[in-house]
Specification:
- About 25% of the residues lie in helices and about 40% in strands.
- By secondary structure, it is α+β, with helices and mostly antiparallel strands.
- Strands 3, 4, 5, 6, 7 and 8 form a 6-stranded antiparallel beta sheet that branches. The chain has a two-stranded antiparallel ribbon with strand order 1-2.
- A hairpin with a 4-residue loop joins strand 6 and strand 7.
């Protein structure tokens, strides 16, 4: 599957000497052999209630499924509900970019997979893939940046060492993959 990804470049702003940002598209070719190496966050059969009048899954359900995928990814790195409750912390999404690549229709089975991209002291950057399992087609991606939050102040705070180490182990594992992640190039942890 080819995925077009925006890459920053510059164009002239007519009537001004200031350039405007422009997107140039780079193609990534991913195959099931690529995404099948990633952890599965969940699988669901799309019910009829999720279908809109266009005959495919409504965009709100993509958001719903990606949100569930984020929570499952958090579990993998120790950001559990128990952790958040015990430490009065949370995570907020700071930025999200969704790409719709193929229709999802009633009765199709989709899975969610995740690839960690980078981490900063307080932020985590990753991409969730939605795969149509029946024919191994990538339906959508959601590239996300989250921040670790001190809920008593409702401000960003550093990940504790144990969480940072778990994230870093995942990043190390994912950095060994032989394929480039289809990140949009504009988001950074």
């Amino acid at each position: 599957m080819f995925i077009a990804v925006a890459s920053p470049s510059r164009v002239t702003n007519h009537g001004s000497s200031q350039p405007l940002p422009r997107r140039k598209f780079i193609m990534f070719q991913l195959t099931p052999n690529d995404w099948n190496t990633l952890p599965v966050l969940g699988t669901v059969v799309v019910p009829a209630e999720w279908i809109d009048f266009m005959g495919h899954m409504n965009v709100m359900w993509y958001t719903h499924l990606f949100g569930k995928g984020v929570l499952e990814f958090f579990q993998l790195v120790g950001l559990t509900q128990e952790y958040f409750s015990m430490h009065n912390t949370g995570c907020f999404v700071l930025e999200q970019h969704i790409r719709y690549l193929a229709e999802v229709r009633v009765g199709e089975t989709v899975s969610l997979r995740v690839r960690a991209l980078s981490r900063a002291e307080k932020r985590l950057h990753f991409i969730v893939f939605m795969i149509k399992e029946d024919n191994q087609i990538m339906a959508a991606t959601s590239e996300i940046i989250t921040a670790h939050i001190d809920m008593s102040r409702r401000r960003t705070s550093p990940f504790p060492e144990v969480i940072s180490m778990a994230i870093d182990r995942t990043l190390a594992s994912h950095s060994q993959l032989t394929w480039a992640a289809p990140a949009n190039g504009l988001m950074h942890a």
